[in-house]
Structures are given as structure tokens and as C-alpha cells.
Amino acid sequence: MSTAVPxxxxxxxxxxxxxxxxxxxxxxxxxxQQVLARVPMATPEEVDAAVSAAxxxxxxxxxxxxxxxxxxxxxxxxxIRDNMKELAAILTAEQGKTLADAEGDVFRGLEVVEHAxxxxxxxxxxHAENVASGVDTYTVQQPLGVCAGITPFNFPAMIxxxxxxxxxxxxxTFVLKPSEQDPMVTMRLVELAIEAGIPPGVLNVxxxxxxxxxxxxxxxxxxALSFVGSTPVGTHVxxxxxxxxKRVQCMMGAKNHxxxxxxxxxxxxxxxxxxxxxxxxxxxxxxxxxxxLVGEAQGWIPELVVKARALKVGPxxxxxxxxxxxxPRARARVAGLIAKGIEQGAKLELDGxxxxxxxxxxxxxxxxxxxxxxxxxxxxxxxxxxxPVLCLVGVDSLDxxxxxxxxxxxxxxxxxFTQSGAAARKFQEEIDVGQVGINVPIPVPVPLFSFTGSxxxxxxxxxxxxxxxxxxxxxxxxxxSRWFDDAASSGKVNxxxxxx
Length: 500
What we know:
37% of the residues lie in helices and 21% in strands. The protein has helices at 44-61, 66-82, 84-95, 99-116, 119-122, 158-169, 184-196, 210-218, 231-243, 266-278, 301-309, 328-343, 379-382, 398-407, 421-430, 466-472, and strands at 10-12, 15-17, 24-28, 35-40, 127-132, 135-143, 146-150, 173-177, 203-205, 222-228, 247-251, 256-260, 288-294, 347-350, 369-372, 389-395, 410-411, 414-417, 436-438, 454-455, 458-459, 474-482. α3 packs across α4 (99-116) and α8 (210-218) packs parallel to α9. 50% of the residues are buried. It is α/β, with parallel strands linked by helices.
């Protein structure tokens, strides 16, 4: 007799409810293919109910004192800390990343929750007295209303925590659509948010695929939409939601390069390249997927291969160096791109396609894979592989390396490894990429700053978390006031623009 598989619930108006849909998808452990749960593709009526609950809750939530909102997130961050091990275990089971990396996923989201608890210092306006004769002007940052978020499979804890805490702390209400591939840890975080005291309707959750995404883009009561995911979907979301009159921020695909100069600390540079290229099985939008080896650094390839070959592959619960890809389809796509790289003339230095994980023969495993001699125009260079594949490109100079990176359409992140301050400064000034690391391979900023991907990796002006997201989730209202002394009033009509 088989054990019943649990169903993932919707959250509507403070209640975890069973969906009425007839369309369900399996949540599958990528290391074993075990079905962990079933997730519903929410009906249009359920999406509308979630938005309606958020719209109604906004009437009172926007008037909640800013200190009360902050204290709620102080409690929430403690609940996340108290449940860190459980959250990481859920994340590893459904997404595949190692337990250590899963804790990092949760922790980087926790940092944003802590930032949300500081909302009193962030949501401040400006004030100036006597800007004209007896006239004062000040600004207030007011919440927008109902906001929505669409999150990807690769960071099912961190990226939802990028979104709804900051939106809600600013006084908005929120409708979240997690990835249908691994929604379980997201839902556990949502349960903790309700336990922390988020009122009914302030946070709602719907699950689904393209139909639900389109419904969120189109819904007239949603004022702003945040998205993290692939470039094709992000471009669609941005265009559709923008045409519906919404504010939109879309963080999308990447092809992140790291320059390695021959004066770099070799051991540190190679270790960081391997970690940033193969960590999370390469399923990071900020992964280093291209290493640009300058001059004599091209001779370091054999040592890079040795380090990559030594990485352990296995189920995330065993805490290896890298776990499986999210799905059999993802594994097949990565394997196909590796074959294409060979076909197009790149040199396969290390092949991870035949990796064996005893006891997990059905897992979606690909081992670390290295190509040298990679050039623009090859599929492995032009496409975001989103797997444990590191492409090596050789150039003769820093200028040539900078030109190569600036010619790439993506602009999520980049890095340089060097001991030269002059080279680092030149790189930082001339590179046309939003997030720059100097001897830091994955330069994702802490929440005091904002995520600043650029060019083809981002649509919308304002990034997630930090100061920029306060502007995204609020409307700046400017108030100009003047109070007259009745005795001093001239009683004359003035039809000209004031000169002072």
C-alpha cells in the first residue's frame, strides 16, 4: 500500500486552503526521483481571490505604524534562525543543493528580513522649509497597494525573502508565486511569516505555471511585480506587466565572466573559480561560467582540472561539493550543450556527463565539466548553460578581456583576480556590468546595497532589496504647503508663475 503524497496548499486571506484545480504537478527529489508532494496549478478564481484578499487587507495594513511593521520582522528573523536546519533539509530534498549551501540560501534571505526590520530608517522622506516665501515642501514614501512576486527554482528560500518582506515592510500587501518545481521550503517560510504575525490577506500565495504568471501580469489590482528567472520568461513578464500599467523589475539570465591575470594569487584564484563555477551544480544566476585567462595564466589549466576533478558529487543531504540538477530535462539540456561544445571545436578538458553516484543511479547528476579554447559563437559560450560547466577563454591582455566581456549582452556580474590595484581600478571603471567583484567571484551585495545587474540581465530601473527596492515598493508624494496670516493677505489674484 503506497503512502499518500501530501498536497501543497494555497494561502488566501490568512488560510492555507486546498486548491480546486484539476491540474497538479509533482515535486520531485532530484537525487532520487522520489515524489515529495503535489503542487496545484491555481485556478483563475483562486488567483483573483488571493489578489482580492490582498486588496482588502491593504486598507488597514497601509495605516499600520511603521514600528509595528518593523517589530513583526524582528520576530520573523528569529523564527527563521530557530528553524534553519529544518528549512535547509526541506530545501535540499526538493531542490538538490547541499545542506551547507541550502543553509546559505536561507541565510542570505534572512539578511534581507533583518533589513526589513530596519524599515523605520529606510522609508524616510525629505523636508525643506521656506523654499519660496512662506512655502514648505516635503516628501513622503507611501505604499503602492497590492504587489506580486514570481520566483525561480534555484533559490527557493533566498529570492522569496528578497521580495515579500521588503514589500510588506513598506506597507504593501503581497501575492507570491513560488517555483512549482520546489515550493515546499517557500511554504514553510510563509508559515513562519504567519506565525510571526503577518495579518490575514497581507501575504498570499498561489502556485502555477504560465497561466498564473499571465494572470498576475494582467490583474488590474496589482500595482507592482517582481520577477527573478530566465531571460525569455522575464522579457515576457516585463512586457506584459508593463503594458498593463504595472511597475516591473525583472532579474534574468547571465553569462558571468571572471578575468584571471597572471599576477593573481594562483591558489586563491583557482579555488574561487572552481567554487563559483561548480557550486550549486552551476544553477546560480551569479555563477562564474566563463574564466578569461590572460597571458601566462593560460598555463594554469591543468591545475584547474585537478581541482575540479577532486570535487565530490552526490545527494545534497550527504553534503558533497555539488548535488544534482533540478530535473531530468535540465540534465539532458546540459549534456546536450556539452556535446555541442565538442562538436563546435572546444577542447573538453574534463567531462562530467558519465559521473556515477552509487545508490542514486536515477539522480540528475552531472559532474564538473571544463572546456578550453572556447570562443564567442559557440553554443556553450553564447547560452546560459545553468549547469556545472566552466568555459575557459584565453586572451593576451586585460584590454582584450574587458572588450570580450563588454561585447557580451549580459551584465549580471563579473570579477577580476589580480594583485594589481591599477588593473583592478581600470577593470572597475571600464567594465559595463552591474556587479563587479575584485578577488570576489560572486559579487552579490549585502542588503545594505541593492542587487544591480544590468543590460541583458535586467529589465526595470530599480533592483531587489537595499535602498532601490524602497523606491520600487513606494510612491514618492511631494507636498508643498503654505499657511497664510489673514492679516497679511493682499486679497489680490495672481495669474503669473511665482518668481520667489
